[in-house]
Each structure stands twice: as C-alpha cells, then as structure tokens.
Amino acid sequence: MGWLDALGWAGSVLLVYSLLQTRVLRFRALNLLASSILVVFNALLGIWPMVAMNTVLAGINLWFIRKLLAERHDDTAYEVLEVGLDDAYLRHVLAVHRDDIRKFFPSFGGLNDLDGSVRRSAFLVEHGDETVGVVVARRVDEGVAQVELDYVTPRFRDFTPGEFVYRRSGLFRDRGYRQVLTPPGMVAPYYESLGFRRDGDHWTLDL
pLDDT at position 41, please? Predict the structure, then answer.
C-alpha cells in the first residue's frame, strides 16, 4: 500500500469513527479532520466531485464548531429549572441515563434510595428544549450544600454547563449557600477548572 492509499484509508476510517461519537463537538472536530484529509486525497487523484463534496462538508463542520464554541461561555445558552423529586420527567431522565450515571456516580443509587427524611432540591439544566444535565443537592449545614448528583449528558460533556450552574446561574447563592460540596468519589471530576479546591474525596467551592 502506498502513502496515497494510506491517506485515503485514514480519511475514510476517521470519517466512520466520527459518526460513532455521542459528543457533538467531538463529532464535528473529527468529521472536519476526516473531510479535510479526503479533500487532499481526492484532489491528488483528480476526483473533483468528491473534492467539492468534502470541501462543503468541511465548511459545514467549521460553521457548527464556531457556533458551538461561541455557546460554551454564553450565559443565555442554559437555563436551570427546579423540579420536585417526584417529577415524572426528572425520573424519566434518570432512568434513561441510569447506567451512565452509575459509571460516574457509583454512590448514587437513585432517588428511591435517598433518605426521605432529608430535604433535597432537584434541578434540570436545559439547553433550549434539550436536557443537558441533572443536579440533586441537600443542605448539610447552615450555608453549605452537598451535591449528591451532578450529571451531564454525553452530548454536552465538551461544553461547560457546570460553569453556568456553579458560577453564573445563582442556583446556590440565591438560596443562601456560601459553600458547595461535590459528590464524594465522583469518577473523572471536572471541578478544578471551575474554581473548586480538592478536599479529601470531594471538591469544595466557596461562593
């Protein structure tokens, strides 16, 4: 196999691999790279219809990537809705993502396993009409909130909904909290980039 064949196979394999991505930004970035490789490959072979098609695909991906990156730190991109723990839609979201939630929050067994004598708040993080994530928290001390679940759906993990929830939405500050504790033992935490400090098996944010 010559280097030109290898280039064509690499672009094709990357194109197929990009279609397997659940994260929208990662999909766009990989698809852009694959389209760019195939533009070069087909241009070297003189297959101009394929050059044109992949050029258009690369342009579409660039447009979407620019739009997605612009929304990363946009206060208007997300909205937080408080719901009851018995809310049917909340329970539906948790059921749909149950296996993924257990992967990142092994200590969270579900709403039915929580101590019913403790008052909790539940919030849905929305992007337009799409649910981005779920936050469940309880008061553990005066001015201190313990987050028990802070789940982000796979599509939005390349973005920063946590920045909006903890820093900009006023979700905790408006309810009188001055400190937020993250769930203990969370797998692959992202809190350091939001200003949290490591504190044993969890992270702490001073508001």
Answer: 94
